[in-house]
Amino acid sequence: MSLEITNDDIDKAEAFLLPQGAKFCEERRSFIRSLDTLDVQACPGSGKTTALLAKLLIMSSKIPLPNNTGICVLTHTNAAIDEIKRRISKRSSGIFQYPNYVGTIQTFVNKFLAIPAFIDKYGKRPIAIDNEQFYYEVIRSEDQEIRKAVRWLRQRKYTDVRNLRFSFDQFIISKSLNDERPFLGQDSPTYKNIEKHKLHVLEKGYLCFDDAYTLANEYLLKYPQIGILLSLRFKYVFVDEMQDTDIHQNRILDAIFHSDLTIVQRIGDQNQAIYTYDVKEDLVWKPENVVYINGSKRLSQPVANAIKNIALSPQELDGNPDKPEIKPILILFDDADIAQVIPKFCELVVKHDLHDISENPIKVVGWAGKEHESKHRIGNYWPAYINERKQKGKTVRDSLEDFINLGACKDINARAYSLAIVDGILRFLQINSVTRVNGRYFTASSFFSYLDEEIPDLLDELKLNLARWVLLLSQGDDVFEQIKDFLFNRLAKDNKFGFRVSDSIAQIFFERGSQANSSHNDETSQIVLPGSVPFVVDTIHGVKGETHTATLYLETFNNGYDVSNVIHCFYPDSSHGNLNVTQKRSLKMAYVAMSRPTHLLCVAIHKNTIGARNKKIIHNPDEIREIFGDYWDVIEI
Description:
This protein is of the alpha/beta class.
């Protein structure tokens, strides 16, 4: 008996998932009913995930499926998985049980491929598949030749050993997972020592996330029948946010799921494929047998009109008729007026009575963050914003100073400081390989329980110290040396722990005033401007997937000025032509930035950008308005 989804099924699902009286349009109903292999190209704010949830809700009500096959739901973040569970688990708990699987692509690859591959290769389970644990393990070595090789790389700023990877196909040491070139001559002593060290770390059981894909690929090549078995188990596979799927993830999924055995539906928006901390010029996901969802629940029609052509693969966009029709605005400025751009945006927010709408935030976004002496970046528009480093959505803390500063960044209160310091202590134990009896690293609760049972005097001392350190921090005092002394001379030397602090670990963990792993940056700051307009300054990567009441997109310099690179796409009925690499990247960033707001979209553009693209200097605002047609209003500062 084949599976079927009826309109009656959809009626029941929408009654549970949608606000009272709301209905799925035929566009979404068609997708929900479909049980064929297809790709869904969905516009920003289309409600595609809700439509997917409706399909899952209906399918789970029909469990067990024919032949007791399973449903596999894959996405990219734990937050997305939690959202799925929150919204449908009360009605469809069966979908979270065998033979089904709901999880991230990473955890799927770990569970079904990387861990079995590691066991097959080394006869044991890996200790950890985690970037931070891997980073600290890979900088540890007592071998002098390896330490010399690591130091050589660092001193010449050639690369950081933590960033080197096993290449996906050849298992050589390269600069990235999908780079099949050795990072250095394979006959050189440095390459051989780094290879020896990385293989040693791998054999010990410490894998970064990328290592899991290399092992998975090796496993599938060795045992191709694994893919067939997984295809037989999972009859239906749904991949949400498909545009975020990287090359190696796409290759693994293609290798596993056979089209004659599995129905695969991939849902996303290829125009928003900027990944977490990168933006690639080409599209990894190239939809086939495409179903389009053009209706946006988020965008007003004026915003939809303005941005529909500012995309690598333009599609029709139908705005939400319930949203107010505020025409998007170009804010033109000169160098001398750059500090007035954000205040002007706030004036516009107040003018349209948007500052009291609390449902979604007001945000100012740009591609490049840190202030530049001669080029415009976010910091030039608004110098007073905070730099908070993240890597792949996860805060990277390389030193004790990072943990201390983290307490202040999160919230200026005693609890935040205390938790941050405890996290720093736990990291200090972890990177020195101090574990519990069961071989697992300490958590805060297990650490305090252990101290309470085994070293109560040390627990009392730590509690007193925490209280003192928090008080001093709240007063603006520096407690770095006090905490360092406690870790070195009290914790590490207690006979219940009895570990020696590695010199290489100490060099990084107790280094001050440096950002050892700052290749990935994400800046964000909450600000309230006079006039009671609360807004957040952030990078485009930082706001991906968000919905804003109003968005200001700042032109910034990143291998050329991003808006300038694609300004011709702002014109009505313009054609893309042959875009170069830089233009493709700029177009994808602009689309993500400009597809956030429900009400007001503003773009800050330097006056030179307009003139340069039109081969002349334009001073007349009316002439500028004529260039951009009916899609944009133009304001000069």
